[in-house]
Structures are given as C-alpha cells and as structure tokens.
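name: query_chain
kind: protein
chains: 1
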Amino acid sequence: MLYNFLAAFDLSVYAPLPLRAALAFFLAFILSLLCGNRLIEFLHHHQKKGQPIREDGPKSHLLTKQGTPTMGGLLILGSSVLSMLLLADLYNAFVWVCILVLVVYGFVGFADDYVKVTKQTANAMSAKMKLFLQFTTAFAAVLVITLLTPAPARYVLTFPWFKDLALNLWLFYVPFAMIVIAGASNAVNLSDGLDGLAAGLLSVSFAVFMIVAYLCGSSMSEYFYILPIPHAGEIAVVCAAVIGGCIGFLWFNAAPAKVFMGDTGSLSLGALLGTVAVMVKHEILLAIVGGIFVIEALSVMIQVSYYRYTGGKRFFKMAPIHHHFEQCGWPETRVVIRFWILALLLAIFGLTSLILR
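structure:
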C-alpha cells in the first residue's frame, strides 16, 4: 500500500525492494511484540483449559504445558499480513497468492484449533477433510502461479548445484506442486511440538527463500544461473514479513511458552513456505533447507508403517522424532537448540547451491 502510494507520485525510487523487505521485517516484529501480551490474555480468557495435551506424549508435557493457550499463530499471521499490505507491491499477483494461501490455510488451522480447545480433544477435524481443504487450496494456488510464470519455465523442475539441469514435468508439475505445498504444510505442523521449535525453523527457511526470491526477480539471476521469474523479487518482502512475525512470536513462545502456535500458524506458514518454493522454482531446495521438517514427517511415516507391519512395535520411542529425543533424556531446550543448529547448517548448505554451479 505504501509502495503503491509512492509509485502513484513517482516516488517509488525511495522505497527499493531491500529497504521495504527490511521495513517489513521490523514492522512485523514490532507488531508481534506490541500485540503479543494482549492476544495471550484474550486467548487465556476464551480457552479456560488451554490446548489439550496428548496423554500418550511425554509425561513432562502434562505438567509443564497444561493450560497454555493455542492459536498463537494469529500473532504471526496478523503482523506479517499487515506488513505485506503496507510495504509490498499490491499490484503484484504473487503477493496476493501468498496472502490468500496464508489466510485460507490459517482458517483451516483455526477451525481445527477451535474444535480442539472447545471439545478438549487432540483429534478435531478429520484427516480426510483437512487434506481435502489443503489440496483444493493448493490446486488453486498452483494454477495461478503457473499462469504467472513465463511459458519456458512454467512446468520446469530445477536441480540445485546444476546450472543446466532441469526437468520439464509438463502437466504432471501441477500435482507435484500441490504435494509440495500441502506436504510442507503438514510437515511444519508435525514439527510444532516443542516450545520455539517450529518458529525458529521457519525463520531460517524463509530467510533462505527471501534471498532466492530476490535473486530470481532481479538481473542477478543470470549471474547465479537461476531461472528468472519476473516480479518474483516482491516475494522477498513477504518472506521478510513472516520472519519478523516468527521472531516476534518467539518472544512469547520460547520455553516456557506462554502461547502455542497451533495449527492456525503451522499449517498456514508451512503452506506459504511450499508456495514460495513453487513460485521461485526451487522445490528440491526446500527439501534440503527444510530438512528438519522432512525428517519430522518421515519419522511419523516410519513409525506408523513399522507399528502396523510389526503388529504394535515402535521404531522410535515416540514420533515425531523430537519427542524421541525427549524420551531419550534430552531436555526440551537441548532438542530445540540442536534442531535449530542443524537447520542453520542445512540453510548454509542450501545456499551454496546458488554459488557452486
């Protein structure tokens, strides 16, 4: 909105993309800090018993997390979307796709959280219904994204570290991209089980894709042998706003958490991360940079499959895998910090793909 106001008076030169991305980060961060306590008080008032804690989870959680409100993702969504509306180019269709994905997936997560806290059950919306809504939204988003992408790159899958290697998936790209978006949404959701874990991991992943988006939309794409995507640079503002919202949320979500992100935040932010990866044609890079999310999702799949195949035996002590390490005696903060460190290493490793081509 601010950028478009300046552009109307030919003053947009005073609001270059890097500056607007920095302002979006700080605005979302400050809004999160200013509104955090009030939102927590509001959630406490309307969630008498807080988020229901899994009885089959770590026993310590029944003591330390009981009564903590959920739906804290509203803080991230509210602060980041407001920052996007103020500082992003609202004539850019990529920005609106990102906002709509956030809002729709956020609504799905909110509905799931609402049923959980009102009925005090860990199982709210059915998996089939949740997946239907996720894939329907992903389908709409992918169709718009492919229309906005130049024809030569529309259905192309690129490979990190290879400047000339690309695979044209043709129409198979649409279901593939849908799986990326819905899969990222659910993988982040599974990772949201410890204080500060998901928000920290998301901040690292969005930081990488902020850089990638900026390069894709600029003339530097040729230098880094990246597929140029016109107007994709504006996605950097979107990523910066989300990073600011996540770090501001961490102020209240760090152990011991005053509020949980809930499905409201994890489903929507995961979906946005997948959407951004599809927009900039770096879906495989997402699997590398978001490697912790992949491992968390795989741990659940392995646990379920092994349990069914062996008739009740467990491969891990508990899944997702962050609970396995808790059961091994690691304190919660140690698990979180070590997962953050691994995420940073994966991010650096992923960024080398932009240089070593």
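note: Strands lie at 156-158, 166-168.
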